[in-house]
Amino acid sequence: GSDSRQGLSEKDADRLGTGGDIGSTRTDTIMLVHVPTFGTPTLVSIPRDSYVPIRGMGENKINASYNVGGAPLLIDTVEQNTGLRIDGYTEIGFGGFADVVDNLGGVEICAKTDIVDEKAHLDIKAGCQTMDGVTALGFVRARYFDPRGDLGRVERQRQFLSALSSKLSSPTTIINPFRSLPAIDALTSSLTVNDSDH
């Protein structure tokens, strides 16, 4: 997940609560997904502020690799620090994220506590609720209210992905062309993938 504000109008940046830092782009979220031939896929989050060796940069936060060398250096950094080979890459920015959620008609998420995080543009009560794109973006970005910082945030990001997957694969989405087609269009137009992915 990129924190890119590219393509956002001033009005969109205000609506999404992204701030105005358009110049530098870093990764807001880094996740590894392993899909085995047989068995259950595994999802692992890498906290974006993890200090790691980065080729040509010495030690720095892992998300700085993306800022300096884009996806190729980020992939290289993850491979060098995990010993894993990365076969595919997918990226989404703030605007695309919100569009996907809104085109699905929102996503049901159960917040464990009240969350007030001004920097993430979020003020919600504990409990289950349907989050629109702006609220869901704030939910996955929020970290300043949480004493666990990025560790709490990656938990909420995985919670969101689980809810998104359930919504995308639900019969009400799949059989309803008025919901599935806009969601598929928003998803495909919002993602950046490497050449071998589709």
Layout of secondary structure:
Elements (H helix, E strand, L loop, with lengths): L9 H7 L14 E4 L7 E4 L5 E4 L3 E4 H21 L7 E3 L1 H10 L3 E5 L3 E3 L4 E3 L2 E5 L1 H9 L8 H20 L1 H4 L2 H14 E3 L5
Antiparallel strand pairs: 1-2, 3-4, 5-10, 6-9, 7-8
Structure description:
The protein has 198 residues and is α+β, with helices and mostly antiparallel strands. It is built from seven helices and ten strands. Strands 1-2 form a two-stranded antiparallel sheet. The chain has a two-stranded antiparallel sheet with strand order 3-4. The chain is globular and about 45 Å long. The model has no long low-confidence stretch (mean pLDDT 83).
**Secondary structure: helix percent:** 40-55%
Structural class, please? alpha+beta
Which sequence of strands runs across the widest sheet? 1-2
Shape: globular
Number of strands: 10
What is the oligomeric state here? single chain
User: Low-confidence spans: pLDDT under 50, at least 5 residues?
Assistant: none
Strand content: 15-25%
Radius of gyration: 17 Å
In N-to-C order, the SSE pattern is HEEEEHEHEEEEHHHHE
Number of DSSP helices? 7
Q: How far apart are the first and last residues' alpha carbons, in Å?
A: 18 Å
Major β-sheet profile: 2 strands, antiparallel
